[in-house]
Every structure is written in structure tokens, then in C-alpha cells.
Amino acid sequence: MSLRTTPFHARTGPLSEGQAWRRWAGYVVASSYELAHDREYHAIRNSAALFDVSPLYKYMITGKDAARLLDHVVTRSVGKAKVGQVLYTPWCDNDGKQIDDGTISVLAEQTFRMTSADPTLRWLHLNASGLSVNIQDISDTTAALSLQGPSSRAILQIAAEQDLSKLKYFRLTSAKIRGIPVTISRTGYTGDLGYEVWVDAAQAVPLWDAVVEIGTAYGITPAGMLALDVARIEAGLLLIEVDYFSSRHALIEAQKSSPLELGLGWTVATDKERFNGQAALEAERRRGPSWQFTGLTVNWDSLERLYTEVGLPPRLPSQAWRTSVPIYDPRGDHQVGYATSGGWSPLLKCYMALAHLESSSAAPDTELRMEITVEHRRKQATAYVTPLPFFNPDRKRA
Amino acid sequence: MTASFDAIVIGAGANGLVAAHYLAGAGKRVVVVEQRQAADHSADIGWVPPRVIRDLGLSQLRLEQPDPWLTVPLDGGNTLELSRDIGRSVEAIRRISPADAAKWPEFSQRMRTLAGVLEKLYLAPPPDIETRDPRELARIGGLGLYVRRLGKQAVIDLARILPMAIAELLDDWFESDALKGALGALGIWHLKQGPRSGGTAFNLLHHHVGSPAGVFRPVRSNVTQVLEGMKRVEVRRGNRATVLAKNGRATGVVLEQSGETILAPLVVSSAPPRGTLDPVAIELDPEFARAVRNIKERGVVARGTLTPDRAPPPSYANLCIAPSLDYLERAYDDAKYGRDSAAPYVEVQRFDGNRLELHVQYVPPGTHEGLAQRVAQVLKVRPDQLQLQAAEGSLYHGELTLDQILFMRPVPGWSRYRTPIAGLFLCGSGTHPGGGIPGAAGRNAAREIL
Amino acid sequence: MKKYDAIIIGGGHNGLVTAAYLARAGKSVLVLERRPRVGGAAVTEEIFPGFKFSMFSYVVSLLRPEIIRDLDLPRHGLHILPLESTVTPMENGDYLAAWGDHDETRRELYRHSPRDAEAYDEYGRLMHFMAQAVKPILGMVPPDPTSFSPGDLVGLLRLGKHFRGLGAERLHALVKLMTMSSADFLEEWFETDVLKATKSASGIIGTFLGPRSPGTAYVLLHHYMGELDGVFRAWGFAKGGTGAVSESIASAARSFGAEIRCDAGVAKVLVRNGRATAVVLEGGDEVEASIVVSSLDPRRTFLQLLDSKDLPDEFVSDIRRFKFRGSSGKVNLALDGLPSFTCMPGIGRQHRGAFSISPSLDYVERAYDDAKYGEFSRRPYMDIVFPSMIDPGMAPPGKHVMSIFVQYAPYTLNGGWTDAKREAFGDAVVNTVESFAPGFKAKILHRQVITPLDIERITGLSEGNIFAGELALHQLFFLRPAPGWAKFATPVRNFYQCGSGTHPGGGIMGASGRLAALRILKDGR
Known about the structure:
Chain A has helices at residues 9-15, 38-46, 66-73, 121-127, 152-160, 204-215, 225-234, 278-287, 300-308, and strands spanning 4-5, 21-24, 27-30, 48-52, 57-62, 86-92, 98-108, 111-116, 134-137, 142-148, 172-177, 180-185, 194-200, 220-222, 291-298, 325-328, 335-345, 350-358, 367-374, 377-386. Chain A is built from 9 helices and 20 strands. Chain A is globular. In chain A, strand 17 and strand 18 (350-358) form a beta hairpin. In chain A, helix 2 crosses helix 7 and helix 5 packs across helix 6. Chain A is an alpha+beta fold. Chain B folds into 3 domains: 2-41 and 51-57 and 222-295 and 400-449, FAD/NAD(P)-binding domain (3-Layer(bba) Sandwich); 101-218, no CATH class; 301-390. A 5-stranded parallel sheet of chain B has the order 9-3-2-13-19, with helices on one face. Chain B has a 5-stranded antiparallel sheet with strand order 15-16-17-14-18, sandwiched between helices. Chain B is globular, with a radius of gyration of 22 Å. The two termini of chain B are 29 Å apart. By secondary structure, chain C is α/β, with parallel strands linked by helices. Among the domains of chain C are: 3-40 and 63-80 and 241-323 and 469-524, FAD/NAD(P)-binding domain (3-Layer(bba) Sandwich); 101-233, no CATH class. Chain C has helices at 13-24, 65-70, 102-112, 114-138, 150-164, 168-179, 182-187, 193-201, 216-224, 243-255, 298-304, 313-321, 361-372, 387-390, 419-436, 452-459, 511-524; strands at 3-9, 29-32, 44-48, 51-54, 80-82, 86-89, 95-98, 236-238, 259-261, 266-272, 275-281, 286-294, 328-335, 354-357, 381-385, 400-407, 444-450, 495-497. In chain C, helix 1 packs parallel to helix 10 and helix 6 packs across helix 9. The longest helix of chain C has 25 residues, at 114-138. Chain C is globular and about 65 Å long. At the B-C interface, helix 6 and helix 13 of B face helix 6 and helix 13 of C.
């Protein structure tokens, strides 16, 4: 028994039709429950998709200096945030290079729940010298569900017996679902109307049962990571180890990225006291970052032409990809960047990618070339720089 | 109530006072803040660099260079006395081992050559091997050439001997246990290591700095007293100072006892690096803070005094109880497991003709039940004649192990007395060149500041 | 009588590597081995019928990849099987395990200390970098800082440039690794004692130092250099035992035309006018060669094979000062069944990996204390593997072989290594295992105890030091085996040295053998 199962496994396990599991932070989670992920994806944009996101690393930070610690570590202003607010933030090393990204939920005064993609306990402790703060690893004892899609609010309002229409984007509230205490945050990884529900691991299964029971009438669909991948690319959201590498894992300087290079300049506070990487980031802001993280849309006609040349219809990726794809200038001989995530958006009917581009080639609507392999040969299709996100429905913030 | 100065120096030991006087000499208004209420009149052990004496005009400085410099009790009631004159030492050693006596002059010469290299290194900040600055690279090149010119033997010695264990070095040269024990003891001074541990040969050379060939105990002086007597800087006693910093910049200190704040754009601390930086850890990047916490400063020394029974005072200047390398190694074994040595290494140092001070190893932090008894047994005196105080922390503010010297001291990459906090400098034994060289760090730091 | 281009004295793995490279370059090569088989300390012997033992060295990891490629060793029978786990039984019945899967190991460490679980990843990454940083040094001929020759100056500058290119963080880590004790180095990273003890133990392998002795962090790094292909998949078994490594190199050498003669010990090297011209076998026969290469350790090479009149006085004293001080022992057992360890009862995948008897730093340090004063460790550090679990051919079906590598067994034992002392040492080892795996003793069918004296007697390694000379900073790199003679040549012309007593030192690397061969070929041009 190498990998652990999440607190929801008693329910998610039997749902898997094709035994398509993958590992996430030492846990097994479903890549998709059905044999293909398509219906699961459509549920995100059409009704409500239910994700098990328990493998996120979670930490509870409390104490007199809790806000001070977090302000020292992350780039956003935590001390100025209000109770009930959720902050999305990266954090950096002393050179301003990004280590990880996650959320900080302000549960109460000096009481914060922080999530991260990589284990962060040690980093928090290293930054806490001289501070009066309590850091608790609640990763294994806290389970989390993500309910995303146009019907998500309706389902949760019934489940929580609470009016959620006033719960604003990136805010949280506490509630009870069938007597189970939960926190509901209006957050997610799909760029759509959606909520994440945080619960004590011991109550995970009853929570799942409650939400699914109520949601069935609304088309609730358990969904796996393949579906989530498509939605997150549509939303322009980056993924660690795919779209960027933690500076702590980087083998060479070139593998590191700063938040400014990742389109996260908006998360870097300009009015905070000293935080990790501040000086380097201020200097970079003045210089202007050398790279930008943007969207790319592949031009359909140029794509179709590549396949027509060999007598085939265009072949679109059946799943989102996470490999590195070179991007060239319009002449096709000088590489100006690389895409790290991409795929076909069934909703937007376009071939989209997330890419790192040299700043000089990153202006919106810039014409570039993306490498595509057609019948074993490397070709290039035309692609245009597209500001992120690709998909931004009103209901996301409504 | 706040006061404002150009510079605050924390600690009125030799390094702190030297730094203060250099800064004052450059026209700065300096105040020195010292924790202890009463001035400490114990002697300073270690070489005071001549340049410091010259620059600060320390005309009242008294250097004690006893002759013989070491007395070693032998079996059968005799003693071995090592003199400043190499020939006389040879005669003395010949009585216990003719072979060792024959090797003494060459050994002394070779060690002196190596100590000379260290002296050169100690009078300047450590070489910055990562630099791109052509002047610094030229200086390093110059050092390299200097060593090369000392001859092939010196280069090989430097490479071979620096990492060696003092026991191995001494076993290669000598056969007499008593002689090896006496020399080996210097190799373990202030280190939580035994003579068989690597790096102890370096420690011997470090403490040999400033002494002539064949003299393996550091000179003593009254440099701190002399500096205190000089009126150019204000010294405030009886208060522990904690550094204040904001937004990456030092702003002054706060005095623990009185609560008073003193403001200054420049704070120079001769206190241990860890103690200095801990209160402002929030201003530091976490990896630097971690490196500071990793500084090894394990105390193993107890110092104190011995009140002799009857006049006339003993004739020796330094009495060394370390009958063999194995004796020292077993003493260290106890320390490894957190215990005071069952059979400690004891050295009795006579000052000013009458005062007898003690250096005892190993006394690791903890309770010290029976320590006086054990020391008394070794010295063959009564426990009530002894007064001992365990240092608990390293008197050198950071052990002189090979990974905590030169550009690694006090924190790797931060060996030029600066800290990541603008305006906060370090100048004590915890910096280059380390403890036992009173004033050197203070001078280097001051010159770096000015 | 035939005159060879090169005679290699000693058929250990380094000698065989030199022979293979020289033969591949077209030279006529003769390898002379004293024992009935090649391999030296890398041999497989059927000590008890049906039970095959890697008698001395028992795992492979440091064998240079370029040698495996250049000599095409897989084609000559080399098959390395991975060792996937290490379990350390603790004195309180618990254990610490490192498994092949990263997530699983992380969870195991987390059980002991959440912070250590994270620190482990950082530590592993750092050590990976450091091994990469030091790797080029393994493959270089050490430049001599005392010489003014342009070649040496260029070499020194290149070395300096390499170190500066590491970046501040790694350079500092390198300095720490070169100077600290493994315990102190690990204490900067971890808080779990049993983890520190197990890791620091690789700093004391073959070394007469304890985990708290400065200099052991270097040995830690030295052993980490095998972990280049991936964090855990580095230590392995050769199918057929360690002897298969030597046999594959020998086969490669033969395929290039080298001749290998066993039962042919060399007594002396003949020197005329400062030049080596021939060797004299123990039987009295003389064999001529243009070049003579010794793979024996420096003491035997210079103080036994040659007369001191053929060597400069200073060199002779340097060699006399070169430290050996064997500290390792080995106990090889034939078992009726596998032992069940209290901390992890039953037989399972843990038996396909190693057991490390290193429950705490104090435990390992006390084992060293015993040796310091001339005794073998009463409760020794041990590295235990069951070769038959990985390669079933090593034992009859249903039975097993158990290989126990032990620290410390000092070469210079109070009263000397008598037969009684050897058995007492074996008892100490077996009793210690029994305390962690009750019922184990009853499963022992046969027992072979090897002391440093036995190692010396059988393989020729002076004082039983498994590295052919201690891996201490003051006798490494340009100082190995003597200042000024670290480039595989010797003060005698046409006489070279290629054993582990040269740079980069011991462990079954083959690096010395290859570098010596390249030097010889370069000189020949």
C-alpha cells in the first residue's frame, strides 16, 4: 500500500469505471470517474461538477503574530484583509522567485487557514523565528470538496440551508450541512461560479452523501483531474510543476520564475513592510519582467492546413497536455517562448494554450507560431497572444 | 528617554572597545553598552595584533610572556618545563625522550611558518573567493603567491595539516605521551572535539598565532583594561542591549534593564552573532536566520580561580594537567554524551605573580555536580580552594571548527562583518578571525565600516 | 620469454580496469593475480557448498558509468539489481524506513517528524547537487599546487573556476561537507535521531572515525556520489555477487586481448637505472615488460614491491605516514530461513533491501568509542543485506545468505586478533542482531567471520582498510598517496600505480584504474 486514499475514498473509489487514478501529494485521486472525462468537464460549465481536492496541503496558523508571519512569507497583504476574506497569493524566496502558490482564508482574527501545492510546514517554521505563532499541519485531518458550475450555488444553498447569494467572490462563511460544521468559500480552480467546502476528515463521507443527494436533481457530477485541467486552462490559472517550477526545486536559475513573470504582479503588495523577495521584486518591477505568462489561441485555418497537406482532418488533443511546446516568432526560426499547458476547449471551440513569452513578443494579438507534430513531422501553426482568462463568465463574480 | 549617537557598540570586551576606539578616532560619537556592571579584570589571553597597539596608541599595554611557558608534571614527581629558548626546551625534552628532543626544533619551525600564514590572514577580512572584484582577486592571488614562496613544504603542510587531527600530527612527530598531551591540549581549547578529531591541528595553529617558534601557549595581556582606561569613548555598564531594526535597517538599541532606547544609524555588536541577531530575526531572510541558528557554539570550558594554600606562590606560569592524548580523548568522550569529564583536562594559569586562573575541559552545558571535586582531585588540592564557573556557551561565540572559519564565519558568505540589516555590523569573537585574538575582529570590522 | 607492453600487478577491479583500457588501446597486457581468482576484495566465493557470498564488498553503486559504457560491461555479464529500501530497527521496537517510492518515504518520515519529512526532500536535492559538483573531480587528475608547471596551474585555475561556478550556496555546502562531522552536518537539517544516525552511518563506512568526528561528512558525500541516477535507485547488487563485477571487467579485458594469470603473486619489481623493467614472481620467474603498473595499496606497492633505495627518502616517509587503520569487519552467514525483526515482523519486501543497525547517534558513536581504545564494538553498527532475496542463485532454494558489514573492528586490537577474539567478535555481531530479531541465531547454518587481519591476509589490503588508505582530507586528491605523486606515476620511471590508494580513493569505482590507464597512454605518446 504505497499511496493513501482521501477521506472521500469510500465514495469515490466505487465510482471509478476505468480505474483511472493518479497521484497527488501522496494520495490517489481520480483522473476521471467515467471512461472518458468529457461529460465531467461539461458539468463544470453546464450544471455542477464535484471534485475531491483533499490532497491540498493545509495549515492552520494562529497566535498573536499569525498575520505578521504570513505577511512576512507571502506577497499579498494579509494583515489588511478582513475576516471572511480569502486571498490567493504566491510566495517567494529571498530573490523574488516563486516557491509556491495557494490561498489564505481569514477565518477569524489572527486565525488563518493556508493551502499550498507543496509541503510548506518547514518554510513556515523557518520564517517564524522570534514570532509568537502556532503552526499546525491540518492536511490529513481536513477534507475538502470543490463544487463548480452554474448550479453550484443552488445546490449548496439547499445543503447548507443558508442564502449564499450574498457570499461574494473569494469570501467565506461557516455553515452546517446536515449538522456537519463546514466552511464554505467561494473559490475554485475553474474560473466559474463555484465553492469549496472544508470539513473535518472524519465527517467527509456524510458530507459527500449530503451534497450528492441534494445535487443529483441539479445534475451534480463527480469529476476528476482531467476535466479540471481543461477548465483551469480556460480560466488561465497556472499549475505548479507544469506552468512553473518551485524555486526550491529548480536545478538552474532559468527554471525559476518570479510572480511578475507569471502574470501575478497584482498579488505583489507595494505597501507592505518587509516580506521575502520584496527588494528583488521591486527592482524587477522597475526594470520590467523579461517574461510574460499569457494565453495563446491557435488559428484554426493554419492548423487545418497542416493536416490537409497530409490528407487528414485536424486532430485535436483529446486531453489537455502538460508538456513544453516551443513558440516561435512569425518567421518561425527564432524561439520566443514555450507553452506549458494546452488543449481544446469544448466550450469555446478553440485550441488554447498557456505560454511563457519573452516580453517583447507578449503583447495581445501578437502573431506567433506554435509547434505541432503532424504525422511524425514537426510543423508550426499560427497562434495569437490572447489575454487571460479565455473564459470569464459574469456568473463567476455575480 | 532616548539619546542619539553616531554609533553604538555592544560589548566592552577587547573587540568591542577596539572597534569603538577606531570609530571614535574617525570622528564618530560612540557609546559602548556593556552587560556587566563591574569591569572584568581577568587577563586577556591571546595575541594583540601590533597594528592595533600602534593605531590606538596602547602605551600602557603589558604583555606577559612567561618563561618557561609551560610546566608539565611527569610521573615520579619531576616536571617538564618548556622554554621560550628552543635549545633549553630541547634539553628538557631530551630527559624524557631523546628522539622527540631531536625533532623539536624542526617541528617548532614548521608550525611557526604555518602560524605566520594565519597571521597574515587574520589581519584583514577573510578572502572572498566568490568575488568578481579585481582588487580582491589580486589580493587572493597575492596570498597564494606568498604561500607558494614559503616553499613546497609549507604548501603541503598547509594542505595536509590544517584538516588533520592534532593527535595524528603529534603521533607523526613525537613519542612522549606527556609532550603530546601538553601540545594536544592546545589543539582542543574551546572546542567540543577530542584530539583525534579533524580540525584540531588547525586549532593549535590558531592559538599559536602571535607566539614565537616553540611557544605553544598564547601570550597574555591587559588590553581590555588599558582600553577601558582610555577616555575617548563613553562606556555604559550594567545593561544588556537588544538591537532595534525596522524595514531592513538598524535604528539603535534598547537597554533591557533601564528600558532606555539609544538611537544610532550604526550598531556594531561584539556579542555572539546568534544573540545579536535573534531579536531581529523577523527582518532576516529565513535561510540566513537558519544559518545563524546553526552556528555551533557549544561551550565546553569552565573557568575559575585557585586559591593556593600557602605562600610562596607557585613557580610555574602555566601548569598543564593532560598526561596523554588518550587522557584528553577520554575527557572528550564524556562531553559527547553530555557529561562533565570524569577526568578533566585542567590548566592553571598564573597572572600578575599571584592570581591563579583555571581553564577546565570538558564542561558541557548542564548541571555540574561534583565538578569541583573532580578538578581538585586532578590538581591534588582541596575543593574549597576552587571557584569554578562553567561558560555554558562558547567563549569564542562560535567554535573554531574548520567549517566555521574564514569566509564561513559567522555565517557562510557573510564574513565581512556586515549583516543583511543595513547599519548592523558584527565585530566580536564570533567573526573572523575568531576568539583568542583580542582586538583583531574589532579592528577589521571598524576598517570595513569606515 | 615474452616481453609485455604492460604488466599489471594485482587483479583487483582497478587493475583489471587498467588492463582493459590498455588492451583496448592495442597494448599487450598481462595481469598477475596472487589468488586463485581475480577480484581482490570484490569476489564471490562459495564458502559453504551451495551458498555464494560476496565475501568482502557486497554492494555496487559507485562503479563509474563511463567504465560500464567504455568496456560494455553488461555484454560481459554485469547485471545490477536495485536495492530498494533501508529499514533501521529502533531500540524501542519502532523502525525508520526509507522506501523506493518518494511519497511512501515522505509519509514514513512524517510519522517521526513532519518537519524532517520536508527537510528530507531539500537535503536530497542538495546532496544531488553536491554529488554533481564533485563528480568532475572524480574524473580529473589532481593538479599539484606545489608545482609551477603550466599544466598544473591551468588545472588549478580550472578547478577554481569550477568551484566558483557552483554559486555561493553550493560552495558553502561543499566546504561544510569537506570539513564537518556527518552528525553535525545532519543536525543542521534533521531532528529525528534515528534518521541522523542512519544517514551519518554512511559517513563512517571503512573509516576509523565516529559520526561526531570532523571529516565524516566527506565520506557521506563520497558514498552519495553513487546516487546520481535517481535518489533511491543507486545501491544495487551485481547478479552473482560482487565477484561478477570483477569477472565482467576481466572478461572485457580478455576480449581486448589481455592475459590474466592467477596463482601468480608478484614478489618484487625489478628496477634498473631508475626504470622498472620486469617483475619477479613469488615462484622466482621473471617476466619483462616496458611498463609495470601496481594496483596494490601504496604500502605494498612502494615498501614491499620495491627496495627503498629505489625511492627518494622523503617519498618513503610520506608513504610510511599514509594511514590505513582498518576498522571494518564482515560476517557472512548461511541461513536456514530469514530472520524476523521485532520492529517489522514477518518476511516481506523489507528483506529485499538493507537493514541498518544504527538506532541512534549515540549508539554509533559508542561503537566508535570501543574501537578508539583498541576493542571491537560490543554493539556494532551494521549494514545487513540478504543477497539471496535479490538474486536467488546465491543460495539453495528456500535457504538464504546474509551479509553483515560491521563497524568497528580495529586492525590493532588489544591483544591481537586471535581465533578466540575473532569468534568473540562474531558473537557480538550475531548477538546484536538477535536482540533486534529474536530467534535469528537458531537459523544460522554456517558462519564466516572476517576481521581486518583476515582482510589483509586474504586480499592484501594493508591493515584491512577497505579503501586502500583512509579517505581523510589530508590524504586525498593531490595528497594521495603522497604529495606530488598523485598522478598515477611514481618516482620510478615506467612504474605506475592504479589502485584505490590513488585519487579518487576507494569504493568500487574503477576510477583510479581508468585514470591511470589514460595517464599511461598519454605518456606513451
